[in-house]
Each structure stands twice: as structure tokens, then as C-alpha cells.
Amino acid sequence: MSATTPHDLGASRTLWELIARRAALTPDAPVLLDESDRRVTFGAFATRAERTAAGLYGLGVRPGSRVCWQLPTRIETVVLCAALARIGAVQSPVIPIYRDREVGHAVQRADARFLITPGPWRGFDHTAMARRLARRLPEPPQLLSVYDRLPDGDPATLPPPPADGREVRWIYWTSGTTSAPKGVLHSDRSLIAGGSCLAHALRMRSDDVGSIAFPYAHIGGLDYLVMLLLYGFPALLLERFALPGALDAYRRHGVTLAGGSTAFYSLFLAQQRQLPPEERLVPTLRLLAGGGAPKPPELYHEVVRELGCQLTHGYGMTEAPMITMGSPLDTPEQLATTEGRPPAEMEIRIVDGEVRLRGEAVCQGYADPDQTVAAFDEQGFFRTGDLGRLTAAGHLVLTGRLKDIIIRKGENISAKEIEELLYQHPGIHDAAVIGLPDAERGERVCAVVEQPAGCSTLTLAEVTTFLRGAGLAVHKLPEQLEVVPALPRNEALRKVLKYELRERFAGS
Prior knowledge:
By secondary structure, this protein is of the alpha/beta class. The chain is built from 16 helices and 26 strands. A hairpin with a 2-residue loop joins strand 22 (405-408) and strand 23 (411-414). The N and C termini lie far apart (64 Å). Belongs to the ATP-dependent AMP-binding enzyme family.
């Protein structure tokens, strides 16, 4: 009998099937590591997840139950996620930095019957927020606080695991072009397809050590877990990514793969530049990889030259977590100037400059059926709203965005959402929110406002205080404020010309 390969495992119908098959193959190999040197093997991961599933089942979670969870990146979160997959629940992950507005919208639109939070975490009481939200809903969800203590039960009480990997079992949230986040519908198979494509493009090995330094609730978290399960290597989990603090854990665990987005590359470079040229920041690091934000070509060359490792950058979105990815086998020119190539399973068309997609890793649509209809063309291709072109070798070059979003540290931020809140400020007559190039963040949020006659000039601190009070998540707050006599507009429909504002304030 031939040995099982990552490609064989990638054919698993469901996430739980993939977990169980990996646990049977390499039960004693590590899969999850953390800064406290805790270590969980593939076998223990599957066992613990099944016991947690039984505990959740005892609390009323059933196949098809809709469960919204907002938890930090830690071992317990990944176990809980696997436990819900064992039951066959519909999961709706929410990034921990989101607050009342976003979480309330997710719970309501997902029709969640359970809301799982970490309780007080990093100075914010998530349980108190959950109770506030529950009081506003006609059918409030059951609240569960989970941080370091997971529910426990006897796996014998569980029904059989799910068998249909194409059912919608995931609702992820993205800002897109509208003020309210859109619920993106995924199946186990679409997420396994995305993770498989990522792992195969990066040429991972069983002796690698990865790292998840971004929110596991991001769709990239499940992508990464699939990669670990396919290739049988572990990842270091970081609740909070901060340098130089995290470097000790990277070095101690011998991390070989790091990254997340363009902002991560810049942070690693900044730390490397504080060391003598001959001293490597993380001696075991062989690859930085990520996506979620534009990558300047010169950044690729700086990483290779100064960090002494390879850099592969890709293109993905919540609706299709892995669209293209640079490969270590690509040429330096291709890695520096493109987003990589699509896998064989991803079909890309460029229609009137727009990138359109079709493949198993593409979502099934949105929680709002009207948004689903608008998102796909007549041939079933998903409209990304991004502009690009394909090279002769099949690599994708992105040239702009149709969607009015800002990508800050790999997270999509809706300009319209912030603008609508700014309009409520008595000292603002009109506002335009734009993304400006930023070496550390990819893009920074800049609010450009007109004020009514006779008002005292606003300060950035006053604006951010107002937006915080309106419930806007911290990572969406403007980092730059510009007050102008009048916003530039076109002559026909008086639409604000944001490109003029970006040109004007890019160097500010």
C-alpha cells in the first residue's frame, strides 16, 4: 500500500475527517505550540476536540446549530473550532477586536443561537458586551464564556460526524464596499481547498514550524490549520503579535515559516536592522509568506537581502482565501512584482480589467441572497472588485480596486462605515475616508472632512473619541485627519473624487 500524501488528505470530505485522518497517521507529532511552551500533538488534538464536542453537545449545540464565537488566537480556540466541526455546527468566527456594532450585526445576521466569548480579555469585557447585545435581540443567543476552560463530555454521547463537506458550515465576515459587514458562506470543502492550495504552493515540509500571529478567527486561521493537517507540522500560536517581545518564542520553537501580511514583513525588517548584519533575527526562518495587502517590489528584495530568507506573497480574500500564491520556485522578478499564480483548481478571468474567479475554494455566496446574485456573473465567476492582469507565465499582477475599501494590516475596512458615522458629528458637514500608503500598516486610515461655517477646527483626538463612542472598532479608527474647505467632486453627480485626495495627502 502506498503512503498517504498531503494530496490524498486534501481529498477529505470534511474538516473532521481531515483531523481524524491526520491523528491516525502521526498521533505523536506536535500540531499546536504556544508562548508558554504548551504542546499538543495531533492525536491529543483530535481527542480533546471530541471531548469538547461532547461537552458542547451537552450544552445544547447540535448539528446545524449556529454558533458565533469571538476568541483570541490560542490552543483552546483551535480545539473549540475543531469540536464544533465534529458536531457539524455552523460556525461564525468574529475577530476579537470587533465591538458592539460588528458583533451585534454578526450574531443577528447569522441567526446565532450560541455566542462564545473569552470574557474579560486585554482590558475589554466581552461577556458584558455579549449581555448588552443579547438584551437587544428578540431571540437572544445562549452565552458561553470560554478562554482556558473548555466544556468536557463523553464522546459516546455524540452523533456520527458530518459526512457532507459541501454544506454551508462557516459564515465569515468581511467589510467589502458596504457599511455593514457581509456574511460569507463557506463549506468544509471550500476551506480545505483553499488551505490545500496554500500548502502546496509554499512547498511545506513535515519538519517545518509555522506561526499563527494573526487572529485565528480570520479566514486565514482555518486555512493555516488545514495546512498543518495536510503536511503534519506544528505552528506557534501568538495571542498578540508584538516585536521584539515575540522573538523569544520564535527562536525557542525554531519557527521556519512566519508572516501574515505586508505589515508583518516590515516589522521583521525593522527588528533585523537593529542587529549587526551578520546576526540573523530568527536563525531558523526560511520563509516569510502572507497576503491581504499590497507588497511593494522593493520590500521583497529587502527581506531576501537582510532577513536571509525567501518571501512569497499571495492574493486572497474572505470569499476565496487562496486565489494566487508566490512559490519558492518562482523567479525573484516574479516574486517581487506579482501575486503569484493560481493553482490548477482556481480559474481566473480578467473581464474589463476586473479579476473574476471560479473554483472549489470560492465561497457559495453571502448570507444576504441579493448580495449573492450580484457577486457572480452569468458564467458563475465571482466578481472580486479588484483590477489586474495575467502575465504570459500566468502570474497575477493587481493594479487597483473597484471596491472602496482600505486594507490596514491585512484587514479590510469599509470607508463608507466610517463616513456614515462621521456625518453624525455636529462639527462635520461632509467626509471622505481614504487609505494612504503606509510602510508599516500597508495602508493607514485618513479622514478628510468639511466643516460647517463657524465651527472650531476639529482635532484627530476629538474625532477618534467620537468614533469610539459610536462603537467603531479600534483598528478602524483614523490615524490621520485633514480638514479642507471643500471636498473635490465631479461635475455630473457631485461624487467625491477620492483619487485626488489620495494624491494630495499621500505624502502627509
